[in-house]
């Protein structure tokens, strides 16, 4: 129930109406019996500054930030978390400190670490867009031995690899064309797919790697969460490799944001239940 003292957190983006975050966070607040509510605001890019200032004035506790505001919102904050600053984008704002964080990458590494530690592993990341950037810096921060970024546009992969190398978080970062992925997967411990290949409605796309090119010890994470079992995850299962589902990234980025805003441990089981219900899984 909304009361006179309900604390508000919100998603800002443009558009926002298809977000899965409101049911996930509201289920968490309910589970912990907290007088908090999560809503979504569609903010036109022209109104971004006044949205942040207005939220501050209204004593809103936190924001999640989605496309197209993740980069532009940074100029209205007092502080940026170190890794979010390297990534160059934030998806979470804590209004207590006016500090921005990027929990997307944390969500991915936590999802992967349910299955295998990242430390000392050789990781291949396919794609060099926004999700890849967030995930690549966190893979470096979590102590991977080597990181290889593969992309269709090789220059983008080279630029991202250069940025991650310059961070000093990791000793070895390579880049190459995604067409050579088969060669790299042979030597990899963890494969991360951040391309939209296989995303609804393109569920029958060809996977970036087929089962025959995977080995049994490979951990395969697909950032796509709709459908749950993507073409790549199907190939991983066929190969006897270990799958990590995109929904887990969504879950753990939300859990991390929840903990930043509230200081409480996120009820991840309840959040996952709400997420699966919303996604009809
Ligand atoms: P983005 O910035 O547009 O980047 C897309 C990347 O995929 C680019 O590197 C692009 O390569 C590559 N790509 C696109 N189509 C391709 C194709 N047909 N073949 C090979 N490469 C292709 O997008 P993003 O924001 O990073 O998001 C990427 C995916 O991650 C989306 O499916 C999104 O749903 C998912 N995601 C999931 C979560 C989660 O919580 N699970 C969170 C964020 C994003 P070029 O540079 O060569 O064009």
Summarize the structure in words.
- The protein is of the alpha/beta class.
- The protein folds into two domains: 7-102 and 248-278, Leucine Dehydrogenase, chain A, domain 1 (Rossmann fold, 3-Layer(aba) Sandwich); 106-244, Rossmann fold, CATH 3.40.50.
- The chain has helices at 21-31, 48-57, 82-87, 103-113, 130-141, 154-166, 181-187, 231-239, 246-262, 268-279; strands spanning 7-13, 36-42, 62-65, 79-80, 92-94, 99-101, 122-126, 146-151, 173-177, 190-193, 219-222, 242-244.
- The strands form two sheets. It has a six-stranded mixed sheet. The chain has a six-stranded parallel sheet with strand order 9-8-7-10-11-12, with helices on both faces.
- β7, α5 (130-141) and β8 form a beta-alpha-beta unit.
- It is globular, with a radius of gyration of 19 Å.
- The structure holds NADP nicotinamide-adenine-dinucleotide phosphate.
- Which homologous superfamily in CATH is the superfamily of the largest domain? NAD(P)-binding Rossmann-like Domain
- Measured by DSSP, the beta-strand proportion falls in 15-25%
Please state the second-level CATH architecture of the largest domain: 3-Layer(aba) Sandwich
- CATH class membership of the largest domain: Alpha Beta
Order of helices and strands: EHEHEEHEEHEHEHEHEEHEHH
Tally of discrete structural domains: 2
Overall structural class, as computed from helix and strand content, comes to: alpha/beta
Helicity level, as a percent range?
Answer: 25-40%
Individual helix count: 10
User: What distance lies between the first and last C-alpha atoms, to the nearest angstrom?
Assistant: 27 Å
The overall pLDDT, averaged over residues, is 97
Extract low-pLDDT stretches.
none
CATH-assigned fold name of the largest domain: Rossmann fold
Q: Could you say which small molecules are bound to this protein?
A: NADP nicotinamide-adenine-dinucleotide phosphate
What is the molecular shape?
globular
Radius of gyration: 19 Å
> What's the main sheet like?
6 strands, mixed
Number of DSSP strands? Answer: 12
In spatial order, strands of the major sheet run: 2-1-3-5-6-4
